[in-house]
TrEMBL record:
SMART domains in alphabetical order: IG (SM00409), IGc2 (SM00408)
Family: Belongs to the immunoglobulin superfamily.
Name of the protein this chain belongs to: Junctional adhesion molecule C
Signal peptide: none
Membrane topology: Single-pass type I membrane protein
Residue stretches spanning the membrane: 308-330
Gene: JAM3
Keywords: Cell junction, Cell membrane, Disulfide bond, Immunoglobulin domain, Membrane, Signal, Tight junction, Transmembrane, Transmembrane helix
GO CC annotations, alphabetized: bicellular tight junction; cell-cell contact zone; plasma membrane; protein complex involved in cell adhesion
Amino acid sequence: MGYHLGPTRQTIRKDSRFPGWPICFTPDVDSRAVAASRAAWPLARALETGYWGADLTTTPVACWVTIRPRGRKPDRRPPRKRLKRAHGCLPTLAVVLKTNDPTPWTNEFESIELSCLIESISTNNPRIEWKKIQNNEPSYVYFDKKVSGDLESRARIREPATLLITNATRSDTAEYRCEVTAPSDQKIFDEILISLVVRVKPVVPKCSVPKSVPVGKSAELRCVEEEGFPKSQYQWFFNKEEIPDDPKSSPRFLNSSYMLNGDTGTLKFTEVRKDDAGSYHCRAKNDAGHAECGAQKMEVYDLNVTGIVMGVLVVVVVLLCITLGICCAYKRGYFANQKEAGNNYKVPAKGDGVDYVRTEDEGDFRHKSSFVI
């Protein structure tokens, strides 16, 4: 199907090289005069015709093709006045999608809307599909006018193509693709990719605080929470006062020697001081909220060097005394006499042909002779 334009007799055809481009023509308008029109200029240059025009006030989806009869002289009036002399009109549309938010987020157990808006379309009842993409593997969410998969009971389509998810869970975090197919349009297909994040509030973290630490020794405090999404960040508090990442940034902790890692939740003291004794607790937080563990006390005590030395000496003296006592006992034969006394008893040997029988009335053995014939 084609049209002739002016004396150049160029044939205009639907061009697949420009799918979705609005095609706007009007008679007797030099293509150079409408170079600002992004809709007409690429195709005008491609066909090399000298009679092109476009209404600069039209929207990207409302354009027309006009035909100038052969033999008619070019109109030298301003472009906007020339457009009134159009002799024919043919609308050309393409399916175009847009979204209000390509990166939406919501908290767990709340509702979220994935907007997929149709800016232009001419096909009645276009085919609408939604796909969920996780680990580069797509799966259908909405197909054949039905919600499927794990969203079957928690989602619905809001006209024309917006997906509404109720009671969102952490497993809904993924990329979603809205696809619209319009067979009657010049550009029959368009899609939009939306990245959804479902935020999960942290649970109460598990905190580990040593009960007592000697002065000058190292100590490590731990805080762990694995349910929150995005991944939780950690804060430590000393006597209800937040511990800064850098001890030099606060006069209260200026003399402390510690390292705080907010990503892993560890608080390490290289050398514990008496002033470090007190109550500690940890907070896990992310964009969805925060949670804290209960306060735990850490005691710091001095090392009694003298007492340790005296205790070691006492243990050494006791061991020496025990060793000397055992040696004296061996020298005096206490262990040897007990061994000999246990070996003094000997079992009497039996004579050939003689049996020793003990009766109930006798307290000793009675000799019994036997003869072998």
